[in-house]
Model the fold of this input.
Amino acid sequence: MAKTIGILTGGGDVPGLNACIKTVVWRAEEMGARVLGIRRGWHGLLHFNPEDDAPQPLHVVELQKTAIRAVDRSGGTFLHTSRTNPALVVPAQFPDFVSEDGYKIKKDQKRDYTGHILNVLEKLGIDLLLPIGGDDTLSYAAHLHQKGVPVISIPKTMDNDVFGTDICIGFSTAVTRSVDFITALRSNVGSHERIGVVELFGRHSGETSLMAAHLAGVDRAVISEVPFDMERLARLLLKDKKSNPSNYSILSISEGAHMRGGEKVQYGSPDAYGHLKLGGIGFVVSEALKKITGERTIYQQVAYLMRSGAPDALDRMVAISFANLAMELLGKNQSGRMVALRHGNYTHVPATTAVEGKKTVDVDELYDKETYRPKVKSMLGKPMFLY
Done:
């Protein structure tokens, strides 16, 4: 059995991460193993100096049961996080203590520091790496697995788009928050008799928007997977408004949505995994609705509020169960796996599964492309979250 476990969180934070980390630490102590918390995701390993024998608590810290007993009571990740990709490091993030010998590229180009990461893991004596993240974080975990590093990946993302698992840590709370905010916003939209436009996170997958719309009973929902016709959407929302005794209508829209023939609304520079920032399609739609319908609108980005605060009960359950399953695999000396939920059952799949595809909404089964509404074709045999 592994004696030293390294655990990290990467990418966007979600509720449930702290509960997952705490469970790993408590189980490890029962199993006689120690846990090293790697701070700021892959950034912590990138900037750890293996030649320095002094403690480096800014990057790696030992986690003990008594010290972290209350971390699960709050959201986010107490280990902090980043979007660092050690295989594609920009010059501004180059560790100044790593020799440039062997780098046959220009100084202003990105570098692959995987060799350095492997040296750090060896220096720390890490026998098993437990990365908790989305498809970007877990893609580098799969890369390390292929380099011979024992890895057990744990999927988290509020978008719920990690390939190979039906549910990720953070998804349930994101839906819960979205439903609550949409419901609360009705008082403002209704009071002013307007069309409400609520923009929700969701780059490639519109599942969060779809589920929130389904549960909150919005009038129309636009998702990332289906390009929409602006004129038709406007007509439908105007019809919804006029047929509502309170004279208002509500639209939810994924940040990754786009009009037919149009592009996604993106800005900024690409991150370490090549993604531009998304956001603003809701504003574009809101302004277009004003012009087409002549009605006033209220536009609201829910954004980071979707993943703020403590996890709901289901996210606690998934986070704790994923941690227990990972430790169960550790006890059986199994690695190169990703814990998962499939068809309502806890299981595990190869660690490389996370990079083998993109998880998106089953449009034919769960969405009406003509009316822009959630529509479950058949409930029989569906799991709890319809996937």
In short: Residues 102-106 have pLDDT under 50 and may be disordered. The first strand starts at residue 4 and ends at 9. The two ends are 35 Å apart (CA to CA).
